[in-house]
Amino acid sequence: MKLMETMNICVATYKLFEGNGIDVSVIQFAKELARKHNVKVLAVDASDSIKDLNVQRLPANRPGKMRQIAADIDQQKFDLISTHYTPFDMVASLCRTPHFLHDPGVPPVTTTRKPSDVYLWSLVNTARIISARKARVVLPISQYLAAEFRKKYLYRGRTEILPYCIDFPEHVPQPVDLPFEKYVLYVGRHTHYKSVHDLIDIFAEARKEIGDDVHLVTIGLGEPRYMEILKQKAARAGNVHIMGFVPDIWPYYAGASVYATCSRWEGQDRPVIEAQYAGKPVVSFNNCSHPEVVAYGTLAWNRSEFKDALVKYLTTEPAGSGASAEMVQRYAPARMADNFTSIVKQAVGENGT
């Protein structure tokens, strides 16, 4: 099968909403592909605010609909289907259309907190096991996830590392106007495995050492019960500001002294990359994918090292010029789209249907 220079591509995922890292990455990837190719996006649900993309909502989460949806996809004669999350992983495994399976990762079962979480974990992993067997290529977004995929699923097929892209602003905007200057920033979901509670505790230790003129700002949505725990911790620690969802996070990056995360698991950690593009040092633990994405900052082995790094970046001007150029080089949308099309042409164009 010889691929045309302009391909007909189906991009499919579970949902497409602002505020979710995977969703935003898929939207930006699809938009970049659409510069050179004909792209149609399929999702179970999607925000009405998504512009410049052909998005169709389909009930792929209903098992009885999967085969019909797969048949409809095949009838549209796409050159390939690029899936990013269940249930479209399963739908693609029922298609004749060449399937490229992106893997943004699944947090370990140890991060689940209630039976419904365990059920979802089982469902997503089962879908990955089944769909990977028929995929042309599995595309983990980090080396860490590639190793986990092979180990967890006993997968021996072809994998290619393809990090998710970030549509960086041309210029980092002016800092947000806050009634304080020095602050640690965290951006992301507020869930237990992200360990925002640990970040608050470590910040409180750093504040005791530095003084009252430092703050912690957290941005992102969270589970109601966990958010209540965080608010109580924040009140005890002092100078902690839990902002919730913020539409434009770049002014917060611009004003931060340091970005920090205590997350126990990340497939790529998009905010870490964004913070470095904004010229900010990052403090994280030396775990999961963080060694791959932290180019400017500190990878801490324990809480003491983490606290010491916060103190350092809050009290001294960071050395060096940052990692903005490196982040663009590694994670720009054009790079992801070009690398993806090269992988596709090699896997489909050279090996045939």
UniProtKB/TrEMBL annotation:
Q: State the organism named in the record.
A: Methanocella arvoryzae (strain DSM 22066 / NBRC 105507 / MRE50)
Question: Could you say which enzyme class this protein belongs to?
Answer: transferase
Protein name listed in UniProt: Predicted glucosyltransferase (Group 1)
Q: Which EC numbers characterise this protein's activity in its record?
A: 2.4.1.-
Keywords on record: Glycosyltransferase, Transferase
Instruction: Domain (Glycosyltransferase subfamily 4-like N-terminal): give its ranges.
Output: 20-167
A GO term, aspect molecular function: glycosyltransferase activity
CDD domains per UniProt: GT4_PimA-like (cd03801)
Q: Which SUPFAM superfamilies match?
A: UDP-Glycosyltransferase/glycogen phosphorylase
> Which one Pfam family would you cite for this protein?
Glyco_trans_1_4
Where does the signal sequence lie? none
